[in-house]
Amino acid sequence: MLDLFKIAIRNLLRYSRRTILTASLIAIGVMFVLVFSAASGSFKSLMIGQITDSLMGHIQIHKKGYVSSLESLPLNLGLPHKTSVKIDEMLARSKEIEASSPRIKFGALFSNFVESTNIRLNGVYPDREFKTVPLLSSRISKGKKSIQKGEILIPALLERGMKVKIGDSIVVVATNKEGSVNGKQFVVAGVLDGITGPGGRDGYIHIDDAVELLRLPETEISEIVIRLKDFSRLNIVLNDITGQLQKTFQKDGKFPLEIHTWEDLSPFFNISLMIDIMTFFIKIMLVALVLISVLNVMIMAVYERIREIGTMAALGTPPSKILSLFMLEGLSLGVLGTVLGGVVGAVILWILNIAKITYNFGQSKGLVLSVSVDLTELAVISLIVILVSVIATLEPAFKASRMKPIEALRHV
Amino acid sequence: MSLIVAENVKKDYRMGEVVVQAIRGVSFEIGPASFVSFIGPSGSGKTTLLNLIGCIDTPTSGTLSVAGTNIAELDRRRSAAFRGSNIGFIFQDFNLIPVLTARENIEYPLLMVTHISPKERRKRVADLLEAVGMKEQADKRPDQLSGGQKQRVAIARALVSEPKVVLADEPTANLDSKTAHSVIELMKAMRDKSRTTFIFSTHDQKLSDVVERLFTIEDGLLKA
Ligand SMILES: Nc1ncnc2c1ncn2[C@@H]1O[C@H](COP(=O)(O)OP(=O)(O)OP(=O)(O)O)[C@@H](O)[C@H]1O
Ligand SMILES: [Mg+2]
User: Fold this and answer.
1) What is the pTM of this model?
2) What is the number of the ligand closest to the CA of B11?
3) Which of A68, A150, B10, B93 has the lowest tally of Cβ within 10 angstroms?
């Protein structure tokens, strides 16, 4: 085997220019896929991180029917106090859940005593909200990174549009579900940068203020947002929670809740899906590239060496060893290209990382693209390329091993 | 007992409609440690006959047994194994493996074909390099060797597996007459040493004086 390997390598060196050309072609493919999938992967996870960690959380629980009328922030589709307390208790027991935050969402009128405009508000328990969507505090560009009762975080758009400053008093007027109107005065505690996506331009107040403003007899929660300890276990936890909730709340085959992941609720899931599909197709192209270039070289290699194959066969080399010889040649070519591409790709990623390329995502500015070599990804790509090289070599190598020595020796 | 026994061996080549009768019924016996030549003009069937003895081709009819084996009965894998242990080849165009050095070329059949301890292998290769006078050039690749040197390496390679027969199809056709003579002399000397039967073909009458037994072949038939 070692001797076959020696011959295979020397044959690759013998046609060094062709070997280098083919290996480079494979290397460019590998490098491209590596860099692309790292960059798109990092962009994707950053994007998802932005959406989930500053706004949506990972999983949301609503009363059935809420999501379909999400835009109007309906107050008559809240979770009754008893229900939300039960859910809270259940979530607190789960080891998979980092934090959860109940919200009362409603539309209101925002007035600076001179003019007024619409605002969408979240009534939250501030500490729970900040734990559930940890990037929220980074969105607060001015003022305090917390809120107390009587304070309000307003979106940046409103700050500019209504010319209010931190510390100003403003009035929020809301209509409750019975139709009666109530107003309450707040102090502007901070300004929130908007982000792209549903709820990206909402304001925040304390949940007790929301209850008071809406004259709710008891806290009625619009949604419960959940943050997981391990994001990659999203679907497992989703099934787990759904199962538990169904056990508790399902009555007469009716389940009064709906449970969604961020994927169901955010349009960006489709973008992330598209990135995945694109990466997949680029990988398919890599496979085609490797297949064609290795096949091409190996067909040539066999054709050029027919007399040599004839000699080997005449000397008594068993067909299996002739097969192995060419297989090793194709394999080595694939490995060479993979290693070359892997190294160059890793260097490029390393440079990209040092260069700290930034980009803007919606209104989130200056996000740093942190590309890293995903070792599993690298392993998968390498494996695919090497496997494809072997497959491409199979036919020519088999042909070589089946050659009759007499005919091969007569070949000119 | 004879090493090679041919009985009314015929070989036809079919090319579409046309059938070429390359060997038209030959019978002969060759014993161990012989030094034999088939001599004849171009197209007479020398290569065809040597290929049959060398077990890289099968007769159309008749029986041909080499070292007690009827060569018609071997399949692809077995005939490769049979060649590996019983037959050595020397080619007109030398046919050394270009990526291997002289030493590695000689070693090749031992690696690919037989299972011999590395120590024994090295000894055999070294002895043969010495015997064919290629010790100095042992680490050169074929493209750095002259024709005569290449054929010396090829002779050593043919002998390394200690075969019963070495077949050489026009081994001197690509060499000048002086080198040709020395190559034939070397083959004879190696025969004396190894007691291996050497069979070579040639169309060069001048080489006939060194052989011990001469078959003249013409038009696919042996002449008495
Ligand atoms: N594979 C083949 N297909 C068809 N005809 C063949 C084949 N091989 C040999 N022949 C024919 O068989 C006859 C004998 O050929 P062979 O090669 O054995 O002659 P030779 O004595 O070796 O000639 P040379 O001295 O030119 O090498 C020739 O007429 C040749 O054309
Ligand atoms: Mg011939």
Assistant:
1) 0.81
2) 1
3) A68
